Amino acid sequence: xxxxxxxxxxxxxxxxxxxxxxxxxxxxxxxxxxxxxxxxxxxxxxxxxxxxxxxxxxxxxxxxxxxxxxxxxxxxxxxxxxxxxxxxxxxxxxxxxxxxxxxxxxxxxxxxxxxxxxxxxxxxxxxxxxxxxxxxxxxxxxxxxxxxxxxxxxxxxxxxxxxxxxxxxxxxxxxxxxxxxxxxxxxxxxxxxxxxxxxxxxxxxxxxxxxxxxxxxxxxxxxxxxxxxxxxxxxxxxxxxxxxxxxxxxxxxxxxxxxxxxxxxxxxxxxxxxxxxxxxxxxxxxxxxxxxxxxxxxxxxxxxxxxxxxxxxxxxxxxxxxxxxxxxxxxxxxxxxxxxxxxxxxxxxxxxxxxxxxxxxxxxxxxxxxxxxxxxxxxxxxxxxxxxxxxxxxxxxxxxxxxxxxxxxxxxxxxxxxxxxxxxxxxxxxxxxxxxxxxxxxxxxxxxxxxxxxxxxxxxxxxxxxxxxxxxxxxxxxxxxxxxxxxxxxxxxxxxxxxxxxxxxxxxxxxxxxxxxxxxxxxxxxxxxxxxxxxxxxxxxxxxxxxxxxxxxxxxxxxxxxxxxxxxx
Length: 569
What we know:
The chain is of the alpha+beta class. The protein contains 21 helices and 7 strands. The strands form 2 sheets. It has a 5-stranded antiparallel β-sheet, sandwiched between helices.
């Protein structure tokens, strides 16, 4: 069953208000959307059965969540819709409210149920009631949200990166068997990535037959109990709602169907008894723990040691290579929520194509070595598992592309803004302390993007005569000397530095960048400790440089030694 698109248009931002019939709307700008949804709800009276009505609510009400930014805003909009439906009071609204209470978002189930009770209690008695208001409710209204589970299946792909839970259902009257398939992204914390409804009996029988033959693809298919299916799906739903989970460009994004069927899926799973037969109940020793608890620091270290022991000849830079492997293990557990002793094409792409390039701070020479370590790591983990030779071949082919992506993205400053600040460091200075010291000094010389004051300006566009282009100082490459000069000039000019001092300021920034002489950074630290702003520190150093002979570095170093020190009498 379908609905009119008017109920999906023009959903505005939230505005505070009070709810309930006779009170003003919380979001009055959405009045037209509420009216369209209420008008469309008349189609519910013509629904063939409870499943058609549930699918209508999923497609026309729950799916609206994809049009709003957060669950909280969606809840406010639904509360307004519930108030408007109760105010309208016709039979279609009574069915709509009953259906929202049964298979809509749990946050508004209580409000919708109470409103439905009030509407049905006064049906036909309200002043001015029309024939439509007095129409009897469909006989299946009492079946909404009440379904019995049948067969359940679990498919897991050969890499353990994805699983699908399929459950068969039928309403309490035994009619209209249907199924729900939930796809769980195990390679990203085990969140729900897709939901599909199988509503036609012929398609349902074909799906079950395919599951029995193991047809969904390479992997393992098993018949599971309803309680286990309930546990798996509800855990995935709860994980999907976690707000502290990191975001990934390559991670799963819920589509409209996922938003549409999530409340219905939740209702179906909560309708399954949580109890488990003693023969199927997991033992206390096998009780699942969070991945971080299952992989404490000691176990992670053991995995790193085993990998390094399997490669006794090592690579170019043993210290930094070990640090890289440790970072791979930590990122797998903490960012992807995936066991580090397993690997697959999706995990490899996310780890080495996005997570590590975005967070790894390493010079160019280390990146080349890390690329080889990444290839060896994937091959070693794959060989340590139970992957077929076809699976290992598929993974090896994927790594050809991923290796190129890793080195390229790690050195792309728009992906990894830290890279320009450490790109030229030698391998022996790529350790944690050296990296941090370099970053502190160079960030002082040239602030990192996002800390450059938000300066933008326009200049003539060389590609198009007579037009201009907007320049954002965050786009300047700190590793480029000409960009450092431009950024220093713009920044100092905005803080009132005169043209006579400007060249010396540029020179001081270059000295800070190169750490030559070392006394420049020492003076900057002393002045900053006394509360002198960064731009004034650079100007103070520039004045010292102007009063010294560039050909006499010893005299310059001696002059710097006295700057910023307390005066003794």
